Amino acid sequence: MNRNGLLIILSGPSGSGKDTILYELAKRERDIKISISMTTRKPRDWEEDGKNYYFVDEAYFRRKLESEQILEYAQYGSKFYGTPKAPVDIWLAEGKTVILKIEVQGAEKIRALYPDAVSIFLMPPSLQVLEDRLRKRETEDEDEISRRLTIAVGEIKRSLEYDYYVINDIVGYAVSDISAIIQAEKQKTFRNKNIISEVMNNA
Ligand code: 5GP
Edge to edge, what strands does the sheet with 97-101 contain? Predict the structure, then answer.
């Protein structure tokens, strides 16, 4: 059966566990594609170019923007982050579930471009847990941690703009919650209109 693609926005403060959740989700779900963003920030020790992000300089990022190869972008702190357009278009046309791991400004732009997109806000159990996680991963210095916590408060205030909340207290439960959202959204009648004609034609 030929379904339309499903576009999922996953946002959540830095340290809310988006990467861990997506890693686990990709093991469970069929037909999931996770968009790889472009960023002007420096890679963390464990990050690989082309896998976690495309790490680029600002001039390259601006060229991609000007040539309209970036679907949406945002400035986070002093760095730019953007979603390459071509893979998203291709995957959606193929009927895949496409996940964009983006922050709140980007989410707003995607909702305007794709009104059928489904948005999920990954919520930490508390700000204290968020701070502990950021400190424990040892990838940011104290200044950057406090900048990220300030941004986190602003993001949580905007979380009511999202369709769903998932609390990331225990990873396995959060992954199951997101799987359930994806399954239910895929079955919505408006996403499956072409199935009616396929069934009729096979009669
Ligand atoms: P980090 O530096 O921790 O990898 O990412 C910082 C923030 O930027 C996170 O909230 C992350 O979801 C967001 N982000 C990553 N890629 C994109 C993107 O392509 N567009 C937007 N708008 N935000 C992104």
Answer: 32-34, 97-101, 6-11, 118-123, 164-167
